[in-house]
Every structure is written in structure tokens, then in C-alpha cells.
Amino acid sequence: MEFEAVIGLEVHCQLRTKSKIFCSCSADFGAPPNTHTCPVCLGMPGVLPVLNKKVVEFALRLALATNCTINRRNIFARKHYFYPDLPKGYQISQFEAPIAEHGWIEIETEKLGKRRIGITRIHMEEDAGKLIHDDARPVSYVDLNRTGTPLLEIVSEPDIRTPEEAGEYLKRLRELVRYLGISDGNMEEGSLRCDANISLRPKGETKLGTKAELKNMNSFRHVQRALEYEIRRQTGLLLDGKEVVQETRLWDEARGVTLPMRGKEEAHDYRYFPDPDLVPVEIDEEWIDNVRAGLPELPHEKRTRFVEEYGLGIDDAKVLTSSRELADYFEECVKGFNQPKKVANWIMVELMKFLNQDGIEIQDCKVRPNHLSELLSLVDSGAISGKMAKDILEKVYKTGTSPKEIVETEGLSQVSDEDTLRTVCNEVLTENPKEVEKYKAGKTKVLGFLVGQVMRKTKGKANPKKVNELLVELLK
């Protein structure tokens, strides 16, 4: 029997606000434990939460970018559950009236092509703290800095059918939140966290199977690997005539398996009810229009424009628009050197080689757009060769010095003077009579050897194109 996977993702996106969602504590990541706390986020008796307006604005940005319906009146609720890093004993979230519902994101995979993945809801909530477990002793420490940090939870419809689609959906969502400037989307730091619900059913069936919820996945690769394992595990159970148990399972990356954590809760287990300390949020059309007017050009729009305006292939456009900063970098380079395809190739092949090697983003790179434009202009004018340009780019990358300055300081200008090159070419032909005879006998491949000798004599500074032309002329 062949089974089909039914996958839905619940993504928690930590927002880039200066302060927390219901108090004025800093929301910055990486501070010493328990230093960004106050009576409100610690849940002390008698304190009252005050909603951070920027959180609502960020939620509206994402709702509009994901084609959602915005609820003009939405309500905060208390979600009750016990956990050591949740000081109040409940989390302020949204339940019956979230800020946005019924949207979609378009993805594309090699196997299934373009598909729309539905979004059930987007709601605002506060984050819990973090437990740090001691490997040497049976104790745990709690850091409550993260408590009260604003989150958006994005719940997808169960429209995803493969682990590959799940990874693609997450990449598109991460791309969106970064373009919108609402989150850094860093999965390793927990800014973007994903839980996956997965069940299997016989192909052709419409009834859903029993689902398992997967947690503890902090990279796209982990999500895909965990789903691949869970598909194998559930398939094995069903083929053996056993039942899949509804439960929450943890992904163990070291062993490559999912392990039982607890029985899966239902909504009624959380005893949701409207938070009496927070009034309903009323959103009018003017606010929505103002947020819409401030939206940046979105990734899919930018990809289309790059293809149409710059004549790039769709694959190149996808790479160059993978982040807003990279797309802006490319366009700044083109302003200084108006050959888009050449600029694209140098960014994707030569520059990104260094970025990937060092694990840094384009905005942290010492090679600024005007540097790359200047370098390509030097190549285009014949002042330096393409090979020299690659060496110079590495020096700019390490030092931040302009290409022109490096060329002038190190005397790297390409030799293009015809009289000088003719003299060197004649010397090489005189020193290599056997190669000259071979060439004249029809073995034209020796021309490459002769060019190499000229390059050696000029220490790589000769213009290769002119050297080729001169040698062919002199060998007639």
C-alpha cells in the first residue's frame, strides 16, 4: 500500500522590536541571563500588561504580505499550561479572534512545481523563557530574558505533501519576514522556530490519519530530516497493522530519530479564555492602508522585475533576491557598472565564494558595491585582466581597500601597449623554434603554450587578448 504524507507547520517568528510585547524590557538577544526582566514579564501579582503597538504593525505587515484577511477586532487570550520557564502559569496569546486568517504563500519544488500553501491563521503572543540543562548534574537553570519577547505564530493549512515542500515553505516564509524587516529569521538563535504536524493516509483517501507533532528542529535541514524519518516510522507502523499514537515527539539530530515527549494536547487542554487585563485590538482601514503603503517590494515581485529589467535567468534572479540586502547590493553595483549579467556572475561566483567560506552576509562584507563596480570597470577597460581581477577582489575582501588603490600601489596594471608586447612576443618565438615549427605545421594548440610564455615574462600583466592577436600575426 502506498501512503501520502499530510503536513502542516506551526512557525513561531520572534519579532525585531526594541522592547517586549507587554512591557518596556529590552528584547535584544544575547544579554546575561535574567537581566532583561521586570515585574510584568516575570508575572508578579498585581502587574498589568500594556500592548506594544509595533507588534501589531509587524503582524499587519506579514498579514498583507501573505494575502491574509485581517480581523478588524481581535482579542488576546490566556493559554494555560505549566512549564518551569513560564512564570505566570499561562501565556498571553490569541485563540478565537487572531489578527489574521486565510492567507497563502506560493512555493515551487522540482517534483510538484508551483503550489499555494494555505495559511490558517497568524496570531500575536508572548514567548516563554528558556531552560538550560546542566550536562554534569541533574539540574536545570532558567533564563527569563526571552519571557515576553513578541512572537507571531504562523499556522499553515495541512497542504504540504513532502519534506522538500516543508523546507521550501520555511525558506519562503523566512525570506518574507526578513524582507519586511520584522525578524532576522535566525533559526539557530531561535528567532524562527518550527513545529511540524504530520500524518499519513492511503493515497487517494481524503480522511486524515493520526498525527504526530515534531519539535526541536532549528534548521531547514533538521525539519526535512525529521519529516523524512517520521514518514518512514509511521509507514512501518501502518504496514505492520499497528496504530500511530497522537503525541508530541522530539527530533534527536545526533541519532537521526524522533523520540516520544508527551501526549499531544488539544485546544481545550489549555483552558483558553479572553485575557481580562487587555482590551480588544481595533484596527481601522486607515491603519491598514498606512502599513500597506510602507511595504517594501516583496521577493516574488523583485524576482520578476530582475528577469524583465535586467535580462537575468530565473535561477540567477532567485539567488540575487534571496535576501533584501543582496538584491540591493546587486542593484547598487549595476548603477556603477551597467552590465547586469556580468555583475550577477561576479557576485554569485566570485564574491559569494568568500561569503560562504566565512559564513557572513553581504551587508557585513568589506567589498562594497562601488568596489565591485570599479573592479569590473577596470577589467572592461583593459586596465587589468579577469585573472588579475579575481586576485584583487580577494585583497579588497580582506582589507576593504579600493581596487584602483590596490592596482596603483602594487603596480598591477595590465600591459596593453602593442610595441612592448610585440617585443616580448618576438623574444618568445625566438626562444621556442620547435613550437613555432609545430604551429606552422598545423598544430595550433601550441599557441596556448606560447601565450603562457609571454604571460610568464610579463609576470601575468600582459593583455591575453592582445598577446593572442600578436602571436597569430607574427606566426604567419
Automatic annotation (TrEMBL):
Alphabetical list of Gene3D superfamilies matching this protein: 1.10.10.410, GatB domain, N-terminal subdomain
Biological-process GO terms, alphabetical: translation
Alphabetical list of SUPFAM superfamilies matching this protein: GatB/YqeY motif, Glutamine synthetase/guanido kinase
EC number: 6.3.5.-
Broad enzyme group: ligase
Keywords in alphabetical order: ATP-binding, Ligase, Nucleotide-binding, Protein biosynthesis, Transferase
A single MF term (Gene Ontology): ATP binding
UniProt key word Transmembrane: no
Reaction catalysis annotation: L-aspartyl-tRNA(Asn) + L-glutamine + ATP + H2O = L-asparaginyl-tRNA(Asn) + L-glutamate + ADP + phosphate + 2 H(+); L-glutamyl-tRNA(Gln) + L-glutamine + ATP + H2O = L-glutaminyl-tRNA(Gln) + L-glutamate + ADP + phosphate + H(+)
Task performed by this protein: Allows the formation of correctly charged Asn-tRNA(Asn) or Gln-tRNA(Gln) through the transamidation of misacylated Asp-tRNA(Asn) or Glu-tRNA(Gln) in organisms which lack either or both of asparaginyl-tRNA or glutaminyl-tRNA synthetases. The reaction takes place in the presence of glutamine and ATP through an activated phospho-Asp-tRNA(Asn) or phospho-Glu-tRNA(Gln).
Complexes and interactors: Heterotrimer of A, B and C subunits.
Entry similarity comment: Belongs to the GatB/GatE family. GatB subfamily.
PANTHER family xref list: GLUTAMYL-TRNA GLN AMIDOTRANSFERASE SUBUNIT B MITOCHONDRIAL AND PROKARYOTIC PET112-RELATED (PTHR11659)
Protein name: Aspartyl/glutamyl-tRNA(Asn/Gln) amidotransferase subunit B
Organism: Dissulfuribacter thermophilus
